[in-house]
Amino acid sequence: MIFLMTNPLLGPLVYLDGAGQPIVVINTLEVAVDLLDRKAGVTSDRPHIIVPDMMTGGLFTPFVGHNEIWRRMRKATQESLRTGTTQFNKAAQYRDSIQLALDMLRDPVNWYGHCKQAVASTIMQVTYGKSPPEWKYKENVANFHEFVDGITRAAMPGAHYVEIAPWMSLIPSRAQDFFVKHSKIFRSIYEDTRMSLDLGDHSLSLARTFIEDGDKHGLSQEEAYWLAAAALYVCPSILLWMMAMILFPETQRRAHEEIDRVVGRDRLPTMEDCDNLPYIQAMVKESIRWRPIDPIGLPRRASEDIYYKGYLIPKRTTMIANVWAMHRDARSYGPDAHLFNPARFIDEGTGKLKPGPAGTKEESHVTFGFGRRICPGRHVAVSMLQMQMTTVLWAMKIEGVMNEKGEHAPINVDGCIDDGLVVRPVPFAAKLTARSQKALAMIEKGTVDM
């Protein structure tokens, strides 16, 4: 698969035979838009990947086939994300961004863990409406990481022998234990939200909207538990952005200049500032494009024969979008597509954002997917990254660590921890310095005032 991702000589469509299962790898943005957007009616299904299905009871929205259960869940999610949860999203993101900056400055050695914890905290708050003092914070964050890591490893095509020999699904497996364990966890947190609502706590959250509107969407209790859990499947690129800040310091300098000009040094950034920070917005887009965390996305399945430019893609063919190759295509992103360069999304004449490549819509990249399967929580992920990046850069300077020779310790930009569908950078050291004592004091006061 690495060969397919990185070989520039391969054509727009590559056919593979996976033990009798036809697989088509889509390598260009044009073909992906044609097949996965414009033909979404016949390319929105998922292949039946046995182990993830066992791990989630067939109820985890990103993995569910293009059927009536998926349609109910998708509609409920879209309507919930259009309601007042937006305001709660902003409050949770603001609090966690300030806490992240303080944690990183107080304990810079463990910045990697602080970033992962901040993402988990925000997503859990947006999903269930629980702020850290009100619940078993560390336990639930640990469960969050165990769940996300488990399903992303299992969903990698060919990750388990049972995908090749389906009869092996008859053998009791740890996948079923995983389902039982996490069903209990999701049920417990969801019912805690219901109990809080009954006691008069009307904190906004996705779970609250599912509780109040579940009957309207025809959701069973178990579907509602797992639908809320689907919101956890968001993995923003803050870790890769940290790497970029060290490797491409000129982009950090430009971001500092924009933040200082718009926000100033006498107050903390707010969510409202993000709309006036086009370079930060471009930096978010570029962080997601430069090193996509899910370089081949979740596979699709053709629900009927597809004829495309003289090729036949048979019914039940597994279709894989090579997001990595699309984001490295010089025709879409220029000859420096392999570099981190937020300015590619800026109109240097006006200083405003400019449209991305054709077919990428407002995102300017395709990490969030295509067509009917595009990530419904993408706006939450983007706003979370904008607030985190803005607050961290307002508060500190990010540099590489010097070795004993007085040289910057090298960072393996291509090294990664392969968690199946999701890849993360290998942990690396960073030097984090408050931009001023006043900035540190304001961040400390900001966490007290929350």
UniProtKB/TrEMBL annotation:
Belongs to the cytochrome P450 family. The keyword Transferase does not apply. Its cofactor is heme. It comes from the Eukaryota. Keywords: Heme, Iron, Membrane, Metal-binding, Monooxygenase, Oxidoreductase, Transmembrane, Transmembrane helix. Signal peptide: none annotated. One of its GO terms (molecular function) is monooxygenase activity. Heme binds at C375. InterPro entries: Cyt_P450 (IPR001128), Cyt_P450_CS (IPR017972), Cyt_P450_E_grp-I (IPR002401), Cyt_P450_sf (IPR036396), Cytochrome_P450_fung (IPR050364). The chain crosses the membrane at residues 225-248. This is Cytochrome P450.
